[in-house]
Every structure is written in C-alpha cells, then in structure tokens.
Amino acid sequence: MKRFIPYLLLLLSGASLTLAFAPFGIWPLVIPAFALGIRQVIKLPHRPFLAGWVFGLGWFGAGISWVHVSIADFGGLPLVASIGLMVLLCSYLALFPALAFKLTARYFPHRLWPLALPFFWVFAEWLRSWLLSGFPWLSLGYSQIDSPLVGWAPILGETGITALLVIGASLFAVSRTKRHFTGAVVVSLALYISGFTANQHSWVAPKRQYNVAMAQGNIAQSLRWVPEQDAPTMNRYLSLTEPLWDNDLVIWPEAAVPKLEPLALDYLTQVNARAFAENTALITGIVNYNWETDEAWNNLIVLGKRTPDATTPDYQYFHNNRFAKHHLLPIGEFVPFEDWLRPLAPLFDLPMSSFARGDFQQANLVANGIHLAPAICFEIAFPRQVAANIYNATDMIITVSNDAWFGHSHGPAQHLEIARMRAVEFGRPVVRATNNGVTAFIDHKGNITARLPQFEAASLTAPVLATSGLTPYYLIQDIGVWVLVLVFFVIALWLRKRAKAW
Question: Residue 91 has what pLDDT?
C-alpha cells in the first residue's frame, strides 16, 4: 500500500490545481501544489512518464470535468460511455506533462530540474496547443490573471507566466536544505515583485471611449436549433435590444440568429435598417450556408453603419464586413473521420457540426467606425491566432460564445478567465457576448468592468476605452518565452557537462 502513496499524492496535487483557476481563483496554490507533484515524480525515478501521466490525469480530470456535462446532456450516450470518453480525453492530455517529466528525468539530475524542466514543459505545452487541432485549456499561466505575475503577460504572454511558475515550483521541489528552501522563496518573491512592478507600466495608450451594449438571450441549448423556436429567439433578441439603440455598438452572441443567413435575409434586412436609422451598428453571430458549394461557416456579421458618416447601409448577403471562424471545435463543429464516427452515436452527429474553416488571418470587423479583432468561442484560447487578427488600427477584441453546452459547471468561468488573459497580453479591451453567460466587459488590464449574471435573459451597457499601441508580447509573441527557457536549458547543459568533467 505504501508504494501507491506517491501516485495518490500526484493525483491529488494535479487535481488541486483546479482550485487555482476560475471560478475559485486561489492563485497562490499553484507553486506549492505543482512543487508537490514534481517532488513525487522525483521520488519515482524509474517511472517519470507514468508519474507525470498520473499528475496530468488529476490536473485535467478535475480541471476540465465540465466537458462531461456536454457529453452527458447532449451526447446521447449511456453514462458508462460518456465517462469512458472523458477518461480517454484526460488520458490524452495527461501525456503532455508526462512527456515533459520523462525528458527532464532522462537527461538531467534532479538538482538541475529548475533549469531544464521549464524548457521541456513549454515544449509540451506548445505541442498541446496545436496537435490534433490543439487544446491549450487550463495552461498554468491562466491561473495568475489576478496575481502580481500577470504583469509579465504583456511581455512574455501566458506561456511565459507558465514558465515562471515551473521555475518557482521546481526550486521548491528540489530543495533539500534550509538554504535551498530560502533560495526558492527569494526567487519566487522576486518573480511576483517584478511582475507587480511591470504591471504598473502601461504598454498602450487610451484612444477613444465608446458606449457598447450586449444582449444575452439565455436560449436553452436544447431549443437553439429547433425550427419552431427560430421566431421566438429572434424576437427575444430584438426585444432585448430595444433600449440599446443609442449606443455606439450593439453585440449579439454566437449564432444568436438561429436561421441560416440566406434564409434570414428579411430579418437581417430589418435589423440592418433599424441600426442604420439609429446611427449605430450591430454585430451578430449567424451561420452562413452556400447552397452551391455545400459549405457552412460560423460567422460574425456587421449590420447598420460601417462608419459614422455612411450614407447607405453596408449589409448585403455575403458582404465582406464579416468574420468566419477558423479554429473549429472538434466534434462540435467538425468531426474527424466523420464517415466512421457519425453513425456511432448522436454525440458525433450534433446539429451544425460540419463547418468550413475561415482564414487564419482576416480583416477586422468595422462597426460604426470601431475596428474589432474577432474570436469566436474556442478561438480566444489561441493567442497566436488572436494576434494574427490584431492590427495597428484595432480598437478592441470581440469574442462571442455559447457556453450553454456546459451548464452550471466551472467551464464558462474558465473561458472568461482566458479572455481576460488575452486582454492583458495584447493591451486591448475585450467585449465578450454569450448566450447564457458569462457576458462581460474587460478592460485592457484584464479587469472585468461590467458583467451580466449567468442564466438570465438580459442586456448590458458599459463604456469601453479603446487603446492604441502594441505590447512587447504582440511584437515578439512566444520568442520571449523560448529565449528565456532556452537560456536556462543551455545553462543546465553546461552545468551537467561540467559535473561530468569533474
């Protein structure tokens, strides 16, 4: 029984990391919990891959448990099968920390882990961000959005914060004496103090303030694609928008208009004319379908005024003031090996699960003179893609989502946390419109300035301060973190070589 204790501690230390993320926000927990996990890997010198995998299983098993809500509620699978799919997903994600620990243990003694592990960890997280379309959720740096370390986000990005956490945790994990422990404390304090100091600097400048409004329809997921509910849904959004027309911009969430765009032209023409008459613009999510090519796109489109001095409405079907989602959600928006998987279960044949991809880089949406960099739902978790759609003229980031798939779980709160990190990294305010929450306004420092409660049909208006200028992270992106971990890695190689020479 005693030999299983390290594995139990690995599982618990990984699971406890969930408490560092939203909605719990116990960010100081990351370094001690991670240090405990690293310490247990060290205690299992002949099984670093297995030890890292168990740690990852606890980390993702608890952290993304919200995925099971969508599988169980909408997947049409028996409980045993839905749990099995979750185990499979978490087992796959656990391979990445396992790889990082295995490579570190294979090539470096424990005393050099604070120098070597950050490199292998960043490498594993880079793999996780794109392999099999990528799933970078729950990266450690997101947990620090409310900590002093967030000051490093405009410089090194979220991945850079992750690397700093790995350094701090590793130092505690390999501490064997009081002197080593004191050194770990000093380094960790230096990281947080330097982050706090960096956060006092503003990398961007205020540009202009806009009044922006968002409507949250709170449409039950089970009703979203029921044809009989099309008219009630569209009428609800019109009703919620009625008191909002005096704003500079009104935003509806992902697929707020539940009809295909070619079939909703009368409705869109009506909304377009109203927005134009009110001297404003409205952005909505909608699915576009091309009957000739049999392709569908998850779109954001602009209705009303493109610029304040426009004399005629800009909208017409397939006009270019639109954004097509690029990073599609596996199973939900495209099905790999669909000829095999779709017949197996309703989970693999959900409505609207066969989209075409938009381009990786697209023009900003322009609404009433406001330039917005779009990210639809899952895309906000990919900083490289968000960066590709930010330009010098970009005023703010817009992200729309439908998190009704995840019910009352902690998934929507984590999604909001990710959006907050993008705001800090790029120095742009983020406006986030959702179907049932969390709809929120985020300033360029990542602070939530206004939000709606979840699971309510409501609207919200707030001032948004657009910014100009570019952060260091935007300019160099992940080059900064790679330089950091490579320098540490080269030092580790040099120390290892010198030790062998002795």
Answer: 97
Residue 303: count of CB within 10 angstroms of its CB? 28
CB atoms within 10 A of CB 239: 13
d(CA 432, CA 399): 5
Catalytic residues: 254, 325, 377
* Contact present, 132 and 449 (Cβ < 8 Å): no
Residues facing residue 458 across a β-bridge: 216
For 45, 355, 373, 420, 453, the CA distances from 447, given in Å and listed in that order, are 43, 33, 19, 7, 17
What is the C-alpha to C-alpha distance for residues 492 and 184, in angstroms, rounded to an integer? 17
Greatest alpha-carbon pair distance for the chain in Å reads: 81
**Cis ω on the peptide bond leading into residue 23 (within 30° of 0)?**
yes
| Beta-bridge mates of residue 287 | 298
CA dihedral of 434, 439, 444, 445, whole degrees rounded to 10: -130
Of 86, 50, 46, the closest CA to residue 68 belongs to 86
- Containing 448, the helix (H) or strand (E) segment is strand 448-451
Report which listed range, 313-322, 401-410, 483-492, is most confident: 483-492
pTM, full prediction: 0.95
d(CA 499, CA 38): 23
384 burial (CB, 10 Å; 0-12 / 13-18 / 19+) is middle
Mean pLDDT, to the nearest integer, of 225-235?
93
CB 180 within 8 A of CB 196: no
> Which amino acid appears at position 127 of this protein?
L
Cα distance between residue 119 and residue 141, in whole Å: 15
- Residue 69 pLDDT class (50, 70, 90 cuts): confident
321, 331, 495, 497, 499 from 502: Cα distances, Å? 66, 55, 11, 9, 5
DSSP assignment letter at 437: S
